[in-house]
Specification:
9 strands, 6 helices, five-stranded mixed beta barrel, single chain, alpha/beta, 30% strand, two-stranded antiparallel sheet
Length: 182
């Protein structure tokens, strides 16, 4: 079932999402990969505040390329989510509501999704050039020295994702295999 969602994603929104749903996101989301996640975790360990408001935030694990003239960003495909698995539960426990990436997640991340009534979306790998057309604006928040791994805020319009793990713990990667085998 196709759903159109305006950001931010809240508990009320995740209650309506189920593994396998096609979703189109519009609004502001953050972009961070492993190096940015590491720095955010180190900041928390020092007792500092995060550089972004984490409550109800969505973080896209994206590998951006430089923008072409007249565009806010270059290719914007998802990166492998499991690289953020050691950081994700802590951020979810602080209020992050959604993640976008590709690939499977650990039990600890799925438990954090359930515990915090969150959601894990997958974006289609290999479609970064097409996905970039849904990005209307890109702003550097911090960690510019990390280049493609800097922390960004992007504004998206009808950004296509699929619910992989819903707040109930249903996991499309498992149910799709079961459905295929039967």
């Amino acid at each position: 079932m196709d759903k159109h969602i305006s950001m931010p994603i809240t508990k009320e929104v995740t209650e309506q999402l189920h593994a396998g749903d096609y979703v189109y996101l519009s609004g502001n989301i953050y972009v961070a990969r492993d190096a940015a996640h590491k720095r955010m975790t180190e900041a928390l360990d020092r007792g500092e505040e995060l550089p972004i408001p984490i409550k109800d935030a969505t973080i896209y694990y994206m590998g951006p390329s430089p923008a072409r003239e007249g565009r806010p960003i270059g290719s914007a495909g998802p990166t492998t989510a499991s690289r953020m698995d050691k950081y994700a539960p802590r951020l979810m426990d602080l209020g992050q509501k959604a993640m976008i990436g590709k690939g499977k997640r650990t039990k600890e991340v799925i438990d954090a999704i359930i515990r915090n009534e969150g959601v894990y979306f997958a974006a289609i790998g290999g479609a970064g050039a097409l996905l970039s057309k849904c990005i209307k604006k890109s702003t550097l928040i911090c960690y510019g020295d990390l280049g493609a791994e800097a922390l960004l805020e992007i504004e998206v319009e009808d950004f296509p994702v699929i619910v992989v793990v819903d707040k109930y713990g249903n996991n499309l990667y498992e149910t799709a295999i079961e459905a295929y085998q039967s």
